[in-house]
Amino acid sequence: MVAAIFLSLILLALVVVLFLFTQCRRRLGNIPPGPRGLPLVGYMPFLKKHDAKPYMALLKLSQIYGPVTGFYMGPSFTVSVCGYEAVVEALHNEDLNGRPDSAARRERTFGKRLGLMFIDGDFFREQRRFTLRHLRDLGFGRTSAEDMIHEEIRELIHVISDQSTSDPDRIVDFKSGIFNRSVLNILWALIGGERFSRDDARLTSLMDMVDFFNRNFKPQSANVAVPAFLLRMFPSLRKIIGLRNDIFEPLQNFMRSIIEEHARSREEIPRDFIDVYLKEMEKQQIELPEDQKQSTSFHVEQLISAIIDLFLAGSETSSNAIGFAILYMTHYPEVQRKMQAELDQVCGDSLPSLSHRPNLVYTEAVLIETLRLANVAPLALMHCASKDTQLRGFDIPKTSLLLINLYSVNMDETYWTDPQVFRPERHLDSDGIQLKKSERLMPFGLGKRQCLGEPLARNSFFLFTAALVKAFQLEAVPDRPLPTLDPLTGVTNGYQGFQAIVTPRISK
Ligand code: HEM
Fold first, then answer.
1. Which residues make up the binding site for heme (predicted)?
2. Is the dihedral of CA 325, 327, 332, 335 positive or negative?
3. Residue 317 near ligand 1, beta carbon < 6 Å
4. At 100, is the secondary structure helix, strand, or coil?
């Protein structure tokens, strides 16, 4: 009873403080214009009235208030950034490249600020540099990972062929899991050194855990600003605001057991990312003076958190990109025919490989157009102002949240003609021979926070999509409406599962 009264008083005090805070901040400086919303909740409940898709709603707001719009989301001053010029300026501003922190975001990282996606400052720079360098050395985005990716592709082709031949109408169900399993397995091979067979129970459980996160994580609770000490004092608050440590615990435990196995069986030459990381931990422990040993940023909890972030950031995005490409093929048979003709001519009977890539210009244009139109990560990851700064002449107060609308760049009507149309030719010169690379396209973001997995993502997207389009004729099911191109919105934009008639091809 006493605890309940105390809790209510603290919550009331918090509400009053937040109310006063939001009202004062609004009057500070030349902040970006925007709608006012309600005390405490800000404009969050009203965004939906502009559009159910958050990036569309923000784009519509920008048509009223301009490319840089400010409003409150709960207690946080939030800046929505739309259009090429404003987005580039924001992503090149060092002071806008921070990431927000909240109890909900720390759920996946042992209640601490760890991982790769939501860290800042020197810790971020050190961990990002290390991860990029060593994943690259292990083949991330290089030809040395190609054999392993090819093996994964052959298995996937087998699975799709089996589904097609076992159905009298050759109909295959392209659920999102079909590509996710392959993408996760590739990531796991680089990180954990082992490729699971497609039906290995460990791969299924890893996939289920990542899937469980994607279905249960509520982005809106990520910004609830309840101080950590209140959560410790009143554990029941966690349930009320939707914090879900149970989403992450199985993943954390899985990773810990694999890391322990690695530590027991380490060899001189590191086999994978976990080995490289363990070696670095050891080196730091040896080299650091006694009083600094605890301060190293390399430790097991950080390793677990980094791996979880690589999975969360890398699996859905990559498998959705492949899914959208296959879906577009069923909608645009002429594009598919042209791509297949090029693949047959350049690759002959072999699987498309990275060495073929420079000669696969049309295929490349199809992939670029898919990334542009699918907008797999339409609002990037949320950024945060680490200092008071300026954007397009407006004052952006420290700790403001930033929603960087990559969709508004990739679909900019003033630059791309008919942006809603899937037209790979827009990325080719007038003879259709050379690729035209455009800065006005940023599916992976830009600057210091640009996607860390881009090299692997681009290579695996190419290898999978080119191989599947070469191996199969993909057609819409007759007498049914074409499957929708409208995305499932969430943390990322996903394709909605669809069915297609799939006929194995023999390359000509
Ligand atoms: C088609 C596939 C992918 C797309 C479209 C994509 C896109 C993005 C975007 C837009 C961001 C946010 C940039 C920002 O906030 O400014 C991002 C961040 C990130 N991505 Fe990707 N991504 C893809 C695949 C991957 C893969 C395969 C991995 C890892 C294996 C990965 C790891 C990350 C990480 C760790 C971050 C956070 C980087 C940071 O905060 O410094 N992504 N990605």
1. 451
2. positive
3. yes
4. coil
User: Would you say the CB of residue 187 lies under 6 angstroms from ligand 1?
Assistant: yes
The amino acid sitting at 330 is T
Tokens matching residue 274 = 């976990």
Q: Is the CB of 308 under 6 A from ligand 1?
A: no
Ligand 1 touching residue 174 (CB < 6 A): no
Which 3 state secondary structure label does DSSP give 153?
A: helix
Structural element, H or E, at residue 402: strand 401-404
Three-state secondary-structure class, residue 73: strand
Close Cβ partners of 474 (under 8 Å, ≥ 6 residues apart):
326, 329, 330, 336, 468, 500, 501, 502
Predicted ipTM beyond 0.95: yes
Rounded Cα distance between 68 and 87, Å, is 9
Q: How far is the CA of 315 from the centre of ligand 1 (A)?
A: 10
Report pLDDT digits (tens) over 34-77: 999 888 788 988 999 999 999 999 999 999 999 999 999 888 89
Backbone dihedral region for residue 418 (phi beyond 0: left; psi -120 to 50: alpha; all else: beta): left
**Which residue from 184, 373, 442, 451 has its CB within 8 A of the most atoms of ligand 1, so it is best to mutate?**
451
82 labeled part of a ligand binding site: no
Tens digits of residue pLDDT in 267-309: 888 889 999 999 999 888 777 677 666 667 899 999 999 999 9
Closest CA to 79 of 15, 29, 14: 29
Nearest to 363 by CA among 454, 428, 439: 428
Does the C-beta of 375 come closer than 6 Å to ligand 1? no
Distance linking the first and last C-alpha atoms of the chain: 78
Atom of ligand 1 nearest to the CA of 376: 5
**Bridge partners for 504 per DSSP:** 472
